[in-house]
Each structure stands twice: as structure tokens, then as C-alpha cells.
Predict the structure.
Amino acid sequence: MFKSEFSKNILIKFITYYIRLVFFLSRKRLNFSANLIAKLKQDKSIILCSWHQNIMMLPFTINYFSKHNKNYQYSGLASKHKDGKMVAKFIGNFGIKTISGSSRNKANIDRGINVSSFRDIFKILKQKQQCFAITPDGPRGPAKKISGHVVNISHISKCPIVCFSYNASKKITLDTWDKFIIPLPFSTIDLYFSEPIELDFKKSNELNNELLEKILSKVV
């Protein structure tokens, strides 16, 4: 049913209008630290991380970031897989630009991110007032396991990581690899933003990954 580009575009528009309606009709509870607000006011670029299951609420983080710095620019990493292309179109409706990340071509891929994409990522993060979003367990899992290079990106770019998660009192959890969450209208939506995380790069990537996984899995 959704193999044609026309039907995909209709689906994406429906999802966009639906999620805007859900957000408007729901009560929001926010956990947003003073340290993060201070970091945003300093014009510091940040890396925003969230599990793949949280994609539907990810665009609305812009609402809160923009309240503290309207000059921030938003972009994200999307896979070249057909699902990734649909995600790119969905978040593009909220003003978030995307660059292509993971690929099926193993010759051009390194643990989930297309090698040629790193230059674009660092070019973005080198600028001020940038928020670059990554779902580190995408595009195909395993769920809630960091399989990409978010730690290395933070290390090289010298940008802190902010973790985002949410929960909805009324929701549908799909039987997919990521347990994708679809919030329902008239929910109470809890939005959680971590402190800006400055990783200790003297530690191994494995230890830093474990730390991020614990923070990412926290929901208010």
C-alpha cells in the first residue's frame, strides 16, 4: 500500500498532522536542567541523542530549545534505508535538516554511519548554535544499544551530548524491533532532557557507551 512515493508522502503528512494534534491536546511535563539552559545561552553546539522509539516526539524538543536560544539550527542523521528516508521527510516537516548516514553498502559503512557522512557532521558541529540529533540504536538495532559513533563524534567535535527521552500516559507500543511509541491524544507527556554530558575520553568507548545507555533509558 505504501510502496509508491505518493502514498508515502500522504502517510507522512498524516503522521505530521496527527502528532501535532497529540502534542497540542496533551499535557506536557518538562525536566530541563538549569545547566542545559546555560549551555544553550552560550551558543554551544550540542549533540542530541535519543532512542529510535522516541522519534515521534523528537521534533518537539525544538520548542523548548528555541525558547532559550532562537538562533539554534537543527539537523539530524537519517539512514539511506526506505524507513530512514521517511523519517527524514517527517522531521523535515518540523524544520530539521538531515544528512544521509547509514548505508547497506558495507564497503562504505563503519558501525552504522556512512564514512563519507562524518565530514558533513563535523562541518555542522564546528559551527555555533547547532543541535545535531542522532538515534544511536538506529536504523535497525539492536534496541537501546549504542551501535554508532556518537562517543567519537563528541570527542572529535568537542561538543557535549544531551540525552532525550519521553513517556506518554496513553500510548501504543508497536511490536517492532525498537518498540516504537505512538502517543495518543489527551495524554500526559513527560519529556526528559539530561544535563549536558562532557564524557571522560580517558575511559574506553565501551564505558562511555554504557553511561549513555543508562542515561538514555531514563524516563521521568
